Every structure is written in C-alpha cells, then in structure tokens.
Amino acid sequence: MNNNIFDFDNRIIQIADSSEKASDNDFRIINEITEFNQRKVLSSFIKNGVSEVDFSTSTGYAYGDRGREKLDKIYAEIFGGEDALVRHSFTCGTHTLAVALYGVLRPGDTILCVTGIPYDTIHGVIGINGKGKGQGTLEDLGIKYRQTELDENGMPDYERIAQDVKTYKPKMVYIQRSRGYSLRPSLSVDEIGKITSTVKNMCDCVVMVDNCYGEFVEKKEPLDVGADIIAGSLIKNAGGGIARSGGYIAGRKDLIELCSYRMTTPGLGREVGATFGENRNMFMGVFNAPHVVGEALKTAVFSASLFSSLGFSVTPEPGEIRHDIIQTVCLGDSEKLIAFCEGMQSGAPVDSFLTPEPWDMPGYDSKVIMAAGTFIMGASIELSADAPLREPYAVWMQGGLNYYSAKAGIMLAAQRMFNKGLIK
Ligand SMILES: *Cc1c(COP(=O)(O)O)cnc(C)c1O
To answer: Of 259, 282, 305, which marks where a domain is finished?
Structure first.
C-alpha cells in the first residue's frame, strides 16, 4: 500500500473515528432496512426462478425475450406494482420519467405537481417557463401544467394541495420523492401516502412519483402506499452500481401498458426490444441494489457526522431519518467547495489523477464544480459530488459503492481542506 495516499493528519483520523462511532445507531437502522430489502429482492428472484437462460442475449426484434419479461415481473413485485418495464435502452432518468408522462397524459389533460418546482431536467419535458418550446414538450401538445408550492418548511401543503386538486381537476398528480438539488427535505414514503390519500379522496387521478434516489432507502416504496406509477434511473439506486444504463417504470397494469406504447410504438409496445446481453447486468444490479444503497447511506451518515463535527451545517443531520441517499454540506465559500471536490476526486477508483474545475454547465446561472470518478459514466450511485458556486456554497454528495472506499474519499476531501488551511 502506498502510505502517502492515505497519510491523514492525526486530527482528521481522530475526527473520522469519533464520527464513525457516533454513527453507530444510524448504521444499525440502515443495516436493518438493508436486510429487509435484500430479502424482498432475493425472495422475488427465487419465486420467479431466475436462471442462467434469463441472461442470454437477444438481437433484432427480440420477441419473447424471457429474461426481459422476468425482470419486468421482478421489478413489479419488488416495488409493489402490478407490472413494470425495465430497459437498458432508457437513456437516463429524465427519459424514463418522460416516457411515463407522455404515456399517460393526453391533450387537454392537466398535470399538477404538488411538491413545488420539479427537478431541473423535467422542466424541458413539461415545458415549464417556456423551456423546450417547439421540441414537442407536454405544453406544446396542449397538456397544461400547474404547481402547488411546498410550505415554508419545504413540506407538502395539504390544504393547498386539496384546493388545487379541486380547482384544476388534474389527470395526473406528480410527486418528487427526493430533494434533488434543493435544500428541502426529501419526502418519506408515509408522507407520499398521505398526499396520495388526500388527492384520491377528491378525484380519480393518476398519482405519479419521481422515485429517483429513493429506492430501497425505506422498507416501503410509493406504490405500497397508493401511488399509481413510479419511475427511476438504473445508474442511481435501482441499478445497484452494476446496470450500465437504463431506467424502470412500475405501477398499475393499464398505465404500464400505455407507457409501453410510448416506449416503442402503439401496436408493438413491450413485445420488442433487444437486450444485447444486458440482462445479466440488470438482474445483478437490482440484486445488489439494497446493499449498495445501504453503503451509500452509511457514507452519507458518516459525512454528515464528520462535517458537522468540523462545524459545517449539514442536511440531513446525523441521527435524522433518511428518505434518499443525498447529503448536503454547506461549506460557505468557493475555496472550500473546490478543495472538497479536489480531495474527493483524488480518492476515486477511476480518474483519481484528474483535477475537477468549475465550469459553465448549460442551464445553470453560476459555475458548477463536480467530483466523480466512476466506473459507469455519470453514475451517481457511485461516490460523487456537485456544487454550484453560489450561496450557500453547498455541496450535494451521494453514492458510494462500498462504505470503506467512500469513507476514504470523504476523508481525503476533509484532508485537502485541512492542507489548504480551510479548516482548523
Ligand atoms: C436524477 C434525477 C432525475 C433524472 O435525472 P437523469 O440525470 O436524467 O437521470 C429526475 N429527478 C430526480 C429527483 C433526480 O434525482
């Protein structure tokens, strides 16, 4: 072992030790959820008789790809739905969510987002604030968008949700589980259940949940508490760090069928779609996902504990119950953000020799710096961090395929700040 790489200052080692000890109870809770979810996944594999033949490759039209069909069934079971679509050919989370939106909504319908402004990349799908105009957004097709703001604590505002449902009579109510890149709390599955029953008491609409970053963080998933359809990315939680790309949609049978016609074409639906040998990675990915999510959660808890010990404000705080894998650390100025990202990058298993630099990322009004040294490009179930260089100079970090390597990455981030005299 090259000792120079992990030649941490004694102060960093001590604070890491005490942070890890202080995380004991949080780790216990995470372990218990991981074991529950691991059994949920394993039992579905056993019940469905997953076998070597399910991993065989298909090309061309790929009618009757058995592995593809079995994986759909397994996802449906795990996430508490009647049916599911899991495809490596969904290019990212945004694409998958868009297929679900276009699959279900029709001209004249209204979609009401009840958790404030949705994740950035969805704006151009819906056509929020004119984004994507002319590209065939929902807005271009005559689908109306309405939004219910969160309350002053960043939580669902049930009274206004009820009022807006009554006023707008939406075809779809849209919920975002994760905080994304905002500072609002992420929603618990119970909270999603409460929104769902509020809405369903008033109208017969479709409740859709953007499930990104939330899979396997709790024992329940949104479909277990009454949501109708969920979607997410396979290079986040659900792919377990093994799926090489893709997404999934799960939920009510009739809705999944509609989505299948959008995914390919009316008439063909889910019957086509070559898997090119990706089935094995997707099966292995979801098999590993509960464990990998547990490792990412432990990494987040450790970081929260370490950086709050160093005097920074963190969300969620140590000891707080988590509903997604994201951890925010408010570092306070751009020098610290840059040092943090440089340190984290230096501990990545891939591209450790690169130095991250702030750049003008399209769609942002300030420069953004990112640290990511991942096996799968852009996979945020692997340890990664993003930080826009603007108030409150916070870094959003997530992932970690295994706790000990991610812990080393976090410690290197702290060490780099220490070396530059940015922490005492
Ligand atoms: C990641 C994410 C998406 C989709 O983003 P992609 O980069 O397209 O995968 C959508 N919503 C939320 C909350 C997300 O975290």
So the answer is: 282
Check pocket membership of 328 for ligand 1, CB cut-off 6 A.
no
pLDDT tens per residue, range 371-415? 999 999 999 999 999 999 999 999 999 999 999 999 999 999 999
pTM higher than the cut 0.85: yes
Q: Which two tokens stand for residue 278?
A: 């990706």
Our count of domains for the chain comes to 2
Domain assignment present for 46:
no
Give me the DSSP letters along 246-295. Answer: -EEEEE-HHHHHHHHHHHS-TTTGGG----TT-HHHHHHHHHHHHHHHHH
Please check whether residue 278 is in contact with residue 244, taking contact to mean a CB–CB distance below 8 angstroms. yes
4 CA to middle of ligand 1, Å? Answer: 37
Give 397 Cα–ligand 1 centroid separation in angstroms.
14
* Ligand 1 pocket member 93 (CB < 6 A): yes
Are both 67 and 87 inside the same structural domain?
A: yes
176 CB within 6 A, ligand 1: yes
Distance (Å) from CA 96 to ligand 1 centroid: 9
- Residue 3 is predicted with a pLDDT of 61
* 3-class SS of residue 333: coil
Indicate if 265 and 299 belong to the same structural domain.
Answer: no
Q: Are residues 161 and 265 in the same domain?
A: yes
Report the CATH number that the domain containing residue 343 is assigned in CATH: 3.90.1150.60
The range of the structural domain enclosing residue 149 comes to 56-282
In this predicted model, what pLDDT tens digit does every residue of 89-111 receive, in sequence order? 999 999 999 999 999 999 999 99
Residue 182 pLDDT > 90: no
